[in-house]
Amino acid sequence: MDPNKLTIVKTWDLPSIVHPNVIAMLNSTTAVGVSKSADGSGYEIYKMYLGTGSSTTMSWKERIHVNGLVGTSSSKPIQGFTYSGGKYYLLSDGEYMSFDINGKNINRVKLNTTREPEGIAVDSKGKLLIQFNYYNEVFKQQ
31-82, pLDDT tens digit by residue? Predict the structure, then answer.
């Protein structure tokens, strides 16, 4: 999407294993998606190459596994995912985790709220933005 006009620039077909609400763009032709691992031990990060048409190629060789889940509820839903400055950020319920591009150096942070977050982003100054539903608020990292 064009960030200034909020209009669609290009669309791609995604593999069915990838949930479209948890995709981060690394650059204009490479995206990453996340899903819980099949055995429930953590998350799988998938790299996807976006073609010139609507095709997408998934790189199974570049998939990384992140050990452990994050979130305060038993289901630990993935509610936000982004990439910035060499780190991935994954949000679930009242917690988020960050980790490097190899799935290592994991840092878990519990949010000081009982509200349910619905998205995570990083602004141009490297500050985290966490979005909450109901009151439609955005909390910005100090």
Answer: 998 989 989 999 999 999 998 888 888 878 888 999 999 998 889 999 999 9
Measured at the CA of 8, the angle between CA 5 and CA 13, to 5 degrees, comes to 160
Tokens 């073609």: give the residue: 51
Q: What CA–CA distances, in Å, run from 134 to 35, 117, 131?
A: 25, 10, 10
Burial degree of 28 (CB within 10 A; 0-12, 13-18, 19+): exposed
> Domains in the chain, please, with CATH?
20-140 (2.130.10.10)
C-alpha distances (whole Å) from 65 to each of 2, 38, 72, 125, 131 are 32, 11, 21, 28, 26
- Alpha-carbon distance of 89 to 98, in angstroms, equals 4
Tokens standing for residue 79:
């509610």
Determine the pLDDT at residue 51.
87
Are 32 and 76 contacting, i.e. CB atoms less than 8 angstroms apart? no
